[in-house]
Amino acid sequence: MAENGVSETFGRSWTWMAVLAVICIVGGFLALLNPFGATIFAVTLAGWVFLIQGVIQIIHAFRVRDWPGFIWSLGIGVLSLLVGVILVADPLAGAIPLTLLVAVLFLATGVTKIMFALSLKPASGWVWVLVSGLVSAALGVLILAGLPASATTILGLLLGIELVSNGVLFLFVALGLRKLGHG
Predict the structure, then answer these.
(1) 100-138, pLDDT tens digit by residue?
(2) Cis peptide before 97 (omega within 30 of 0)
(3) Structural domain of residue 137, as residue ranges?
(4) Which of 10, 18, 51, 56 is close enough to 174 for a disulfide, judged by CB 3.0 to 4.6 Å?
(5) How many structural domains compose the chain?
């Protein structure tokens, strides 16, 4: 009985997932067609997020003035606000540090996956974790090697790839939900 209720609920929602899939795929291809524009968009969006987060953090800090962590909270808020203002004011200049951060994250994630894979050996599937780690680490190194020139496009390319990948996933989920609703 509960299974039929779940089937009905998810079966009716497949169109929304399909719409999300199309939006992601179209947005992803637009980002891939114009990685520079997508990079500027991503950096500007990140800037606004930092700016809003900074304002909220500062307001929160003053609301809990008596808290021992007030100075830290205020400092993080001010720093976030400044980062946001810089990224929004000059997204091209902000692309370099954000690209550096992404490269370091890829490298660190890759090394972590490699170490994890080696700890899993000889368990089934450890090789795939190793391959994923090697790919992440290699991407990190390639991005670092291409800086600062790569900063103008790499974030847009990564955004485009991520959007297309998510869109394809959402499309398959939508088709599965549709089948669930008709089954």
Answers:
(1) 998 999 999 999 999 999 998 888 888 988 998 998 899
(2) no
(3) 2-182
(4) 18
(5) 1
